[in-house]
Amino acid sequence: MKKFNIRKVLKEVSSSTPSVQVGPQENHLIRETIQSDHFQLCKTVRHGFPYQPSSMAFDPVQKILAIGTQSGALRLFGRPGVECYCQHESGAAVIQLQFLINEGALVSALADDSVHLWNLRQKRPAILHSLKFNKERITFCHLPFQSKWLYIGTERGNIHIVNVESFTLSGYVIMWNKAIELSSKAHPGPVVHISDNPMDEGKLIIGFESGIVVLWDLKSKKADYRYTYDEAIHSVAWHHEGKQFICSHSDGTLTIWNVRGQGKPIQTITPHGKQPKDGKKPEPCKPILKVEYKTTRIGEPFIILSGGLSYDTVGRRPCLTVMHGKSTAVLEMDYPIVDFLTLCETPYPNDFQEPYAVVVLLEKDLVVIDLAQNGYPIFENPYPLTIHESPVTCCEYFADCPVDLIPALYSVGSRQKRQGYSKKEWPISGGNWGQGTQSYPEIIITGHADGTVKFWDASAIMLQVLYKLKTAKVFDRNRSKEDKGSTEVSDEDPFAIQIMAWCPESRMLCVAGVSANVIIYRFSKLEVTTEVVQLLEVRMQYELNDMESPEGGGGGGEQTSALPTPGASPQTSGPPSHPSTSSNNSDGGNMPCLKVRSTPLKQSPGYQVDLVVQLVWVSGEPPQQITSLALNSSYGLVVFGNSNGLAVVDYVQKTVVLNLGTVELYGSNDPYQRQPRSPRKARQPSGAKMSRKLSLPTELKPDLDHRDNSFSRSRSSSVTSIDKEAREAISSFHFSETFARKGDSSLTPCLYVGTTLGTVLALGLTLPPAGEQRQLQPVIISPTGMLVRLKGSIMRMAFLDSTGSLLPPAYEPWYEPNVTADGEEREKVRKRRPVSVSPSTSQDLSESQYAVVCSEKQAKVMALPSQTCIYKHSITETSFILRADVVQMSQGMCVACFCANGHIMTLSVPGLRPLMDVNYLPLTDMRIARTFCFTNLGQAMYLCSPTEIQRITYSQDICENLQEMLGELFTPVETPEAPNRGFFKGLFGGGAQSLDREELFGETASGKASRSLAQHIPGPGGLEGMKGAASGVVGDLARARIALDERGQKLGELDERTAAMMASADSFSKHAHEVTENIYYKYKYDYYYKSKI
């Protein structure tokens, strides 16, 4: 029996609840209005291209596109802004999709041999029925237009029939051995195609993989014709008149067959084969995976196919071939083709198809081709499917942005659009937008591996790309082989974005790349040509030559650090403020990782480079990756840090203001015992390589990459000891106007620095007055001491005023940097004063501020200027925080945290009361950890796959209104009228032949199916729920049709009963007549004889 330890229990209880400490001057408590019932976690919408797509379907009446994926996901697309995401619980690949056209339902077949019926008449589609096959593998499905009977082909070559209303199997089965010739002993292979003759529903064509095609008569239950070819079949397509069909084969050929001609195909085509002059068979080509045969009233039919290229076309991109009459167009695609569908004017297979577009599903893209215009141009895709154009490396999410920001970004981004698109409207136009009232602007920024930065409008749960910035243009891509540093740094993505900092009010943007560079951008509506890109080269090196261990393990010891003199060599006019670190060094090791272009740079309207800062190699060692980044537009400063220290750059004067090692920040009060690094020889650049592997923006995460995606780790939680590695990385920054030192009575601009060992240090900023003096006088920065220490790496800092309201950093309003006005206007712009959001001067300065600090393990609230801890909360002991943000909700402030164990938590501010803790998402890879971010008003997002963004909300208000915000997929649309048969076709029977499938496949005629063959799994609702969800004209028509059917059935039953009653009455009448006659004669006889007596 385990011994009970009361101390351990009390310790756990005390660590799991916030301990409140009230300082002598902070004896008042802030009333917190935010409560736990203001929080609820739910997914809102998923954006981006479906990851690893596997199948596709289109409803030609509703104009909705469905895409299934290899992970069992289902994405439905209507008009731009109408999207829906569903997921099969099993996670098995979706192998085929079939719409119940204009019925608001979809059938999905999965690789685990299950078939599902989805109800699309609700905003969040749900499964109505499921059928799981136990003995046979599903290979192909076919649902005829306006039919309730689904044909399912299997790997054994059999075909089963399912009633989609009840999702029960029919007893009618087409066995493979009955379909093929009796003389054939070989198995024909799996069923690869099923479809009914467009002109005769009673005839079913079945394609077997081996090359056998069978025309099956459903009524007589036997094969009418068999067509044999010596190459495997991949797909079959009908001519709309039902007299011919076309097959695609594994040798790159197409065969066209007459229905009534069994012997040989009437035509064999090798679209991409070289025709030999001696009349021999063309050389075999790659398989034609799919073919479609579409007719037009005027002109030749279209034959559209994928695959079939010659084997000698090595390296050629995948192609879609469009054959129209004598012309053949080969359309190259950027990625392999998964599937394609031809969009036609009519849903009826027995009418001229009139194709107008082809939807091509690629592995990483969706392309729609206009068949009606010469040259087959593509449609401009309005969906946000280009998130993965280059792999996403980092994300930022901003809610409640300035209202003029999205129009400004859209204005400059609209000029980047390509030309040559089809002039027609996007053909996938079904559904209706939601009616949500959410109106505040939201922007998502994504950084990519190729150095691009994309701005997205994410307002009202939609997503649209606004603007694309290419940071790689700043650098010289043609790196010469003679450049030692460049050639040795052989990485795939040297321009990848690591961290981004953005000020929405001033529109200043700063990005840090994996090659240890920082680029500062200004936003301009005017085009400009930059003759020379301004560059600062910075040396950051950290080396401990000596170490004195402080007694008692406390602080107060002194260390001697051998940090190099802070250096910068601005390539601009004016003297550098620091010694130059150009390649004058004798060891030849001082060089940047990327070479900034020396030629003039033409910069279009939008974000234009203002300054490039590069860390250089020092003594043959590459610079460390940048782990943290921040900017303040009011102060004109950018700060970045890594495992060596930090550097502060004044981008107004283009100088380095501060370059300090982490140890120097502590001064003589360093509390840690740091082991010196072992002596080493100066290495030459030729033997060193810079690691450009993307990691989380903190030094504590690299070991996560080597644990098979397991995020459990063993780390000492002690803040008074350091691992063998003596480096302490900078993990976070925060600019604020606050009390720089303990006991200060005035507010001053400050920079707070958080480290990976849980220390928060303060730096005081002395800024020149605005205007001309800001251009000339230097910015002075001085360390002011340590604020607080926490367990784990510092993740986020924020400041509150005395009422508990957030104090955002001061900012400078945006202005046009490339002004063309006269000198007076220029001076006016130059003298713009920054906007300060600090407390007004009328506020009593003795009133406190509060600093909220969150680390990987815990959160603390410090009262300023007394610097006393008034609230403390241990967030996690067994795991660690990956992302933390102090966010503004409509009811108040809170700290939102995403933990490595998958929990999403919120804490009140400043009281640090736990408000929500949901086990949401067990972490599976670094991508989620790298891209997860919170923003104001209860919004969050992350990359759920390499191509998709998942947005979630933790706000109760948004969860309640989500149903209204979501778009509707199903809309009431009348089904087009059936094609007119014409007088002569009606007279002589040349039109389409209908079939009473109920009579053939119903239980009365075919009996019951084997129970062991498949298991029926009912969904949350039945078919009646689907019918009841209908609304509008179509719903009324559907209900009327159902009512008529039921009425017809009842009338039929009534007729039968009436006939039976009439027959019974007839019989009764005859019988009664006979009885009456007998009685009459009997009485007459008796009366006659009695009268005689």
UniProtKB/TrEMBL annotation:
Membrane topology term: Peripheral membrane protein
Domain V-SNARE coiled-coil homology: 1022-1082
One Pfam family it belongs to: WD40
WD repeats: 226-260
GO BP term, example: Golgi to plasma membrane transport
Cellular component GO terms held in the UniProt record: plasma membrane; SNARE complex
Keyword Cytoplasm appears in the UniProt entry: yes
Family in the record: Belongs to the WD repeat L(2)GL family.
Name by which UniProt lists this protein: Syntaxin-binding protein 5-like
